[in-house]
Amino acid sequence: MRRTVCFLCFLTLFLTLPSIAQNKDPQLQVDEKLASKKFQSQDYDLAKELYQELYKKHGQTHHFNQYVECLIRLNAFEEAEKELKSFIRKNPTYGKARVDLLYVYIQENKKDKADDLFKQILKNFPDNKNAILNLVNLLKGRMLNDYALTVLDIGAKNNTDNDPLYIEKANLYYSMLNYEQAFEYYFLELENNPDQYKLIKNRFQTLLLYDVNKSIADEMRIALLKKTQEKPDNEQFAQLLMWFALQEEDYDIALAQCKSLDRRNNDQDKQIINTAHICLDNGQYELAKDAFEYVMKKGKVNPFYGEAVIGAIKTENQLCKVNPKTDTKTYERLSKKIEDAYNDVGSKEIPGLVEIQADIMAYHLGQSAQAIDLLQQTIGQTNNKIQQNQLKLKLADIYLYNDEVWEATLLYSQVDKSMKEEPLGHEARFRNAQLRYFIGEFAWAETQLNVLKAATSKLVANDAMSLSLIIGDNLEYDTTGMELKRLARADYKIYQHKDDQALVILDSISVDGNEISKPHALYRLAEIKEKNQDYTVADSLYLQIVSDFPDSYMADDALMHAALIEHQKLKNKEAAKQHYERLIDEYPTSLYTAQAKKNYRKL
């Protein structure tokens, strides 16, 4: 053992000698730089000679390694074998040379010699984990993965740290594209050491990040479902499946896992609420409602009860909005439910309920004046800065809805100033820019939108980009702005829920508009038809944009909408697949390409 330590000390000292020598010998630096340059430019013949000369002159190991690398790159395996054998006789403990020789034997189809050499390597097998992993990395570096697996199997039984090396085996199997075995060893690590949950989750996140064709995600899904069925009581596996399901937008699986964990320990309320909000944001209203109501059933003593009440009411309001057949009585019942809920929640939840009720009163019950009074009163009673500004945004929206433009712009500006670099401030600035677009102040709007393109909120940045393109493209085509004013007027009518008036303007533009305004008009027409569940007409309008204006910035957006209608509403899977394929092939840089690939795979 003492001899090994001495050798390691000597090796460490020896490896530092080149840097010392470089400081003393400027010519060495010049020669090394030239050799490296030739190697990098793949002039291996000259690089080989230069490194051979350097090794003869200075005897440094890294010169020899580069010399051998040149021989291997030149397929000069006999010469490499000869040089490596000679080097090993002089340096019997230098592991890299033995691995390089093993690689050379494999390239020469000398399998027997390779096996004999590997047995020699195993005879001096280290019991130190770091030394084991160094050997594994040397073998991996030469793509000798089967040998590396053998080393890991032996090392798992014979290392002083008693480490089963599951993570290292998983990483090796992953590099071999054997995902099934890779996941199995990740799971073994998690089962053996539950504290490694965060590390395993981060590793899975990295795998998904580099999963170009989603083959890894498919394997991961199968492996996780299988493992949670085999080990239903293992919380780490259940949590990992829940996390993965959210990454892949499999919200029903994620919620089911949340509930399963909660039934065991009654400690998942926060996660269920978070999952419910994610479902709500992604239009999964029934799942969101189910999740919020699950928490509500636990009673008022639950600390998340108030948030669950607001979430359930917000979800119910969204369900009403997406159903064009929702009548006034339904909204009146929902407004009454909010009135009753004021007594069930704490003071911090009141502003959230007020915001929803004001929305219903103004937009669906014809009670704008009452909605404004309610909002103003609540703003005066609320001390929370964020809640105050959220209520001000809603108040400004209602003013704009009622054509009280200057009251609206004043409030938007207040929120923008109050929450300058916050997402809420960015949202206020966007809405103010949109207001200016509605009333024809295009230059002012465009200036603000150009700033918002860099907003931290992706949603605001995307909205700003879209509106900026509408303004910029139209003004570039028609400097008078007359066509843009028609578009802006139609958009304002849509904002005010006056779809019939908007349709008249949009129909006119779709007939006599220019090549810039027409696709925009068709897109808005399609949106109105889709909102009214006239899916066949909406689908044809979206496809008309793609057909007539394939180079329009909204063509990929229109194609995605058409695909989703065929997929989710008309249940025409073949048509949906064709649309997804076309989006992937013809618009590879689109923001929707990743989602199209995911949906295509599911179909």
Sheet with the most strands?
Answer: none
**CATH homology superfamily of the domain at 481-602:** Tetratricopeptide repeat domain
The CATH architecture name of the domain at 481-602 reads Alpha Horseshoe
Low-confidence stretches: 1-22
Using the CA coordinates, give the radius of gyration.
33 Å
State the separation between the terminal residues, measured CA to CA. Answer: 62 Å
Which strand-content bin applies to the residues?
A: under 5%
Number of strands: 0
Tally of helical segments: 33
Q: What is the CATH first-level class name of the domain at 481-602?
A: Mainly Alpha
Shape: elongated
User: Helix/strand-derived class?
Assistant: mainly alpha
Tell me, rounded to a whole number, the average pLDDT.
Answer: 90
Query: Roughly what percent helix?
Result: over 70%
**What is the CATH topology classification name of the domain at 481-602?**
Serine Threonine Protein Phosphatase 5, Tetratricopeptide repeat
